[in-house]
Amino acid sequence: MTAFGQLQVIGLREWIALPQLGMVGLRAKVDTGASTSALHASDIVPYERDGTRWVRFTAHFGTLVQRRHRCDAPVVSVKTIKSSNGHAQQRYVIRTAMALGDRVWPIEFTLTCRRNMRYRVLIGSKALVEGQFLVNPALSYVQDKPVLPVLESLPGAP
Q1: What is the pLDDT of residues 50-77, one digit of tens each?
Q2: What domains lie within the chain, and their CATH numbers?
Q3: pTM for this one?
Q4: Looking at residue 76, what is its pLDDT?
Q5: Is Hydrolase set as a keyword in this record (predicted)?
Q6: Is residue 142 very low, low, confident or very high in pLDDT (cuts 50, 70, 90)?
Q7: At CB < 8 A and 24+ separation, what contacts does 149-153 make?
Q8: Dist. CA 15–CA 74, nearest whole Å
Q9: Based on the number of CB atoms within 10 Å of its own CB, is 44 exposed (0-12), middle (13-18) or buried (19 or more)?
Q10: What is the predicted pLDDT for the residue at 155?
Q11: How far apart are CA 4 and CA 134, in angstroms?
């Protein structure tokens, strides 16, 4: 069963895409204990474009083969995030479309170094609520990988 009423069931790990950033085929871990989602990023450089704050960064994804992708996105805010070990860190927050299964919706990501983590992307509870997902932690990769026709229908998709 992959649906429960209006809610779609997802597992602890799922394939996602970030089409507005030009990234497809990312493995993400669901973290219901985290409010905001997180994306592994380095070389983070803030700048201004047409009077708006933006950030340029290198996104890292892939587990066996490390892939990098240079991205630009408007800054939504800067948040202080406290990690599970109690360490507080200032992070840039961006908002971009995420595709999971057959759903595509905008979510917020904090940009942070996840170099020592197995998963380069965490999906937090706010994204799960907005996407109307139910998590079964006993399962993984329940939903199909996002397909190109769904991604191409997005405004600003590559």
Answers
A1: 999 999 999 887 655 567 788 999 999 9
A2: 3-137 (2.40.70.10)
A3: 0.84
A4: 94
A5: yes
A6: very high
A7: 150/99, 150/102, 150/104, 151/17, 151/19, 151/24, 151/99, 151/104, 153/104
A8: 24
A9: middle
A10: 52
A11: 8
